[in-house]
Amino acid sequence: MNIASVRRPIIPPTPPRAPDNMSLFGRIAVIKQNMIATWGQRAYEEEVIQGRFFLHKSFILNQPDAIRHVLLSNYQNYTRTPAGIRMLRPVLGEGLLLAEGHAWTFQRRTLSPAFTPRATANLVPHMTAVLDETIAKLETRTGEPVDLREIMQRMTLEIAGRTMFSFGMDQHGPTLRNFVMEYGERLGRAHFLDMVLPVSWPTPMDRARARFRKRWVEFVAMLIAERRAVGKKDGAPPRDLFDLMDEARDPETSKGFSDGQLVDEVATMILAGHETTATALFWALYLLALDPDTQEEVASETRGEHLVSMADIDRQKFTRAVIDETMRLYPPAFLVARAARDKDIVAGAEVSKGDIIMIAPWLLHRHEKLWDQPNAFIPKRFMSKEPPDRFAYLPFGAGPRVCIGAPFAQAESVLALARLIGAFRIELADATPVIPFGVVTTQPDHSPMFRITRR
């Protein structure tokens, strides 16, 4: 994909690439700190890299056809790795992201009506209300240093709370944020035993994660109990995601979610919804602060409109391209790892049972054979008449297990960025480069301070 650009695009900072000859144990030592820093130059140039992971082969796939095979054509042959299950199960339980087989089919079928474009459109008023409040608060802080990462986290958490339960998160937001921070900093990092032992063999970290899960499940159940206490008027249409999920029934069996299943689904939607969107918005604001000309293009697109509907959001074509390019450079899920259930052929290579397949959006989105100027911030590449290959751009995954909440996340991100940049001019108050690191999601190594001024 060739991109013509009048001005020289910015190239945001990244961690140094690892030596291609780094040993397995050297990589394992780095993984705990920053998975992104374990990949060398070969991983950005070659289509398939084969290696070994203890008793099994490992494959890094950067070939769209091979990725299509693993995520779509033969997806049932691939399951999450033990480390992946260990990292996610304590917070997501057996919700949609981790379910397999019939359980996954039931959940996907049952939840799908809650995430249609029409259902998302009905939730836009919740988003706009929170944005109005956020902008009003920011207006009192113009000219002073502000932590926009923290503000985005609070804002998207509030949107998650209102779209899920129709009530604000003033009371419970700090507790939820503490859960997220505790898990990410202490329990969400892969250790050596997490990667080599079967899931059925508990590691010392698994015991700590189990204690965390007990407290986490009790907290989410309490939120659900509060929402149910509010109730719903007989015959009234669903007013939030909880109504939609609580009333959801499998179209084939008419079965709904049990209380335990509902806890896992709510936890999945709140965490996946607010944390990844907050991170994407932070990176978008950081990129626009580095690139004032592109920031002005976003501001001019809103033309002072008060965006309040899906139709308004859909008109923000350039802002959507900025979000798309942000998630290319900083994909929320930087790595998708799968273990083969049985033998297969992928990209001409023999895959045996237990072999590890790694599809890393971080690598794929910056691969030198797939993208022109892969490390540069060029939103207009997503307005080209030649869109990227569907399996070369995976911010929300692909195939049957593509993220069910993608339309919601995209609408929220575009709306928030358009409204914020339409209201404020944003600059960095901190000259220290922000380096991405991969722990569960693609996070910044620190929260820089920004300075905002009213337009």
If you had to describe this structure to a student in words, what would you say it looks like?
The chain has helices at residues 24-31, 64-73, 82-92, 101-111, 117-139, 148-165, 173-187, 192-196, 204-230, 241-247, 259-290, 292-302, 310-314, 317-329, 361-364, 406-423; strands at residues 48-53, 56-61, 78-80, 145-146, 336-340, 344-346, 349-351, 356-359, 424-428, 436-439, 441-444, 450-454. With 455 residues, it is of the alpha+beta class. Helix 5 (117-139) packs across helix 6, helix 11 crosses helix 14 and helix 11 (259-290) packs parallel to helix 16.
Structure, briefly:
The protein has 455 residues and is α+β, with helices and mostly antiparallel strands. Helices cover 48% and strands 11% of the residues.
Strand content: 5-15%
C-alpha geometry: globular
Largest sheet strand order: 1-2-8-5-3
Kindly provide the radius of gyration, computed on alpha-carbon positions and rounded to a whole number of angstroms: 22 Å
Here the CATH topology equals Cytochrome p450
- Cα distance, first to last residue? 35 Å
Family: Belongs to the cytochrome P450 family.
Binding site for heme: 403
InterPro entries: Cyt_P450, Cyt_P450_CS, Cyt_P450_E_grp-I, Cyt_P450_sf, Cytochrome_P450_monoxygenase
Pfam family, one: p450
